[in-house]
Amino acid sequence: MAISSLNLSQLQKAQVENRQLPASSYTNREIFAAEMERLFTAGWMSIGFASRFSKRNHAWPLDVLGQPLLITRNNRGELHVFYNVCRHRGHVLVAEAESAGKLLRCPYHSWCYSLNGDFISAPYWNGSEASHPDADQKSAMNLVTVEYVIWYDVIFVNLSGDAQPFGDFIYPLDQRWSQRRPESDLRCFSHKNFAMEGNWKLVAENFLDNYHLPWVHPEIGSSVEASLGLEVENLHLSNDIVGFSHPTAGADKSKTAKPLPVWRDVDAIEAGRQDLFFLFPNTCFVMEGSYLWSMTLQPSSVDQCEEQLALYVVGEKATAEQYSESRCQLSNLIYNINAQDAKVIQGLQKGRQCDAASAGVYTPFHDELAKAFHQTVFDKLLSAKTQRGPI
Ligand code: FES
Ligand SMILES: [Fe+2]
Predict the structure, then answer these.
(1) What CATH topology corresponds to 52-148?
(2) Residue 389 clears pLDDT 50, i.e. is over it
(3) Burial of 293: CB neighbours in 10 Å, binned 0-12, 13-18, 19+
(4) Whether this model's pTM surpasses 0.90
(5) Residue 92: Cβ-neighbour burial (10 angstroms; 0-12, 13-18, 19+)
(6) Is 108 in the pocket of ligand 1 (CB under 6 A)?
(7) What's the pLDDT score for residue 298?
(8) What residue owns the CA closest to ligand 1's atom 4?
């Protein structure tokens, strides 16, 4: 999707002058369409959590950027992602989440597929009941697969088919976490979705913003200084992964009355650390010693998106009844924070109805990550292809 010369020159001017993204980039449909193509479709976007699709012999339709996708789990527990489109005349294959048994059957002319996406049958193929396509024809009639990877329970897809290898994309964060905070120890205990009345970028920027914590979420810090995270270390792991590490935010005992178990191989000091990362274009992680919360942003229009959240504790013991109160306190705290942020997002979106919001001023201390986020959006929007690896 091309960007008109008026919008293009406004973006280029803001980039060159090191200013914030113009207000129009949060309200303009043309810029939104270009973002979906150049930021979302081109790279590794998240679409949900594997733990949400756990039932065997099931199929779940998804709308991702307006495109129909289908997630299936077969009888061996293997997950697949396809375009939710029949190979005959393109009818949507599955309209609602369903227990699929062994077969997916198109409602139009009854072509059938396995949950692995293999074409199975087309009735009366050549006019007679006994006729069937030959082997060569069949192999071209399987469902169209979507390239996907599951990492820390998040399902990442590459819709364009030409993103960098996922291993390169995730490498710096995988190096940081996978050894002492292995994915296999995570136990998902809660999912929740939030409708956000604002452009997806506002949710991402707010996620990377520490500055608002004492005023919007006073319950999470003992003092303004503690909430502001003055000791925070901003981290640019790559062009696609930015965030921060707070050495003591995870040590706050007030989150749960009874502390939850922590990672086996993480010492007490490390267990007190909070890592928060945003992965372009739409995945967020907050990792502490005793839990992980993950979020994927699904834009539905230029001024609306949905947050999907998943919360995890560490190790089987943390799923026991004796920790149910702690899990409940943790999910209440995190969901309450997200509800508070939903109001902020509304206010930020409303402010962008006038161009005065384009003249925003960065603070010298708190807005480094917002600035990095804006620069990456500029880069990806304004260059036909931004394919830089880890720094
Ligand atoms: S469109 Fe699916 S069987 Fe014809
Ligand atoms: Fe917040």
Answers:
(1) Rieske Iron-sulfur Protein (2.102.10)
(2) no
(3) buried
(4) yes
(5) middle
(6) yes
(7) 97
(8) 109
Residue nearest to ligand 1 atom 1, measured at CA: 89
Neighbours of 217 (CB within 10 A): 16
* 198, 348 contact by CB (below 8 A): yes
Distance 123 CA to ligand 1 centre (A): 10
Q: Around Cβ 24, how many Cβ atoms within 10 Å?
A: 18
d(CA 383, CA 370): 20
Q: Ligand 1 mean position to 378 CA, how many Å?
A: 42
The residue contributing the CA closest to ligand 1 atom 3 is: 109
pLDDT tens by residue, 240-294: 999 999 988 877 666 888 999 999 989 988 889 999 999 999 999 999 999 999 9
Mean pLDDT across the stretch 322-348? Answer: 97
Q: Where are the domains of the chain?
A: 52-148, 164-382
Report the chain's C-alpha Rg in angstroms: 23
CATH number of 164-382: 3.90.380.10
Pure H helices in 192-279: 200-207, 213-216, 224-228, 268-271
